[in-house]
Amino acid sequence: MRILITGGAGFIGSHLAEHLLGKGDHVTVVDDFSTGRMENIHGLMSNPRFTLVRDTILNEKLMHILIEKCDLIYHLAAAVGVKLIIEKPVHTISTNIAGTEVMLDIANKFNRKIIIMSSSEVYGKNVRVPFCENDDRLMGATIYSRWSYACSKAIDEFLGLAYHRQYGLPVIIVRLFNTVGPRQVGQYGMVIPRFVQQALAGETITVYGDGMQSRCFTYVSDVVGALVALMQSDKAVGEVFNIGSQEEITIIDLARKIKSKTGSSSPIEKIPYSQAYEKGFDDMLRRVPSIEKIHNAIGYTPKYSLDQILDSVIDYYRSIGGR
Ligand code: UDP
Fold first, then answer.
1. For residue 267, is the peptide bond before it cis, meaning its omega torsion is within 30 degrees of 0?
2. What element of type H or E holds 270?
3. Is the CB of 215 under 6 A from ligand 1?
4. From atom 18 of ligand 1, which residue's Cα is the shortest distance away?
5. What domains are there in the chain, each with its CATH number?
6. For 193-248, what is each residue's pLDDT tens digit?
């Protein structure tokens, strides 16, 4: 198969590209390297079935050419990371909405099957866990940039489902829950790479708020396996799926676990949200996915525990010298 991955030089995209090349597919990655990195795909460059196109998905002429030449599309290109979203709110909204619009419009011209990455952020501040795909969403006020990401992803979902309903385009929507693994960087805010880097460097481990907020972390290869299986499933078309793990941990316990696993002497410090992000920042207190729907569709259950995930991320950061 000829596969197009937008955002394929990013953390998840590069793992997906590697997996698909391993299966014998031809993979074209389009990435503008805003958050993607050459190091992520360095090992793929010599593969004759791999093509890298360095450009933005907003380049419609180019996307026309790339989409016409492919069979299937994984659309991962997006502005991500809470820190980046707050620092660059205009970039976030336009990349996420206009980018997906371009992809859907052209995919529709050539009737190409497309998976669109959405996010657990779309559930917002809902505290009724686990989150089911058809649950109501509870968004914060528009004065807080954080919610622009959730809303931009929700618009992507609406658009994808609309193309499916109105034109019969084969679209699948997935909501990712805190995907982690080697190659993820901490600079855009993601907590596990940040804590691991801080712990290995002997720096203060920065827990935001009181640390009682919790998350469930999913290993990147579980996500990649789920994406590929959904792409192959006819039943998945026109549907929305959570992809995540149900092993919940509070952020303060996560900090303690990483400190102990790395044998670090780093102090753990609580930092108010207003100092870490923006004044009035709203966090999501709990975020646990229901994985019943995806389990019923493709037999998905996450294979990696949090301990295995942390060991892998710690090994990765040690192998590259802690940074
Ligand atoms: N967090 C933290 N310290 C950091 C980075 C993040 O305490 O240095 C917290 C953050 O406030 C959130 C959780 O860790 O409650 C997960 O943050 P991340 O940005 O990784 O993902 P989110 O689930 O917020 O999208």
1. no
2. strand 268-271
3. yes
4. 190
5. 2-178+219-244+288-300 (3.40.50.720)
6. 999 999 999 999 999 999 999 999 999 999 999 999 999 999 999 999 999 999 99
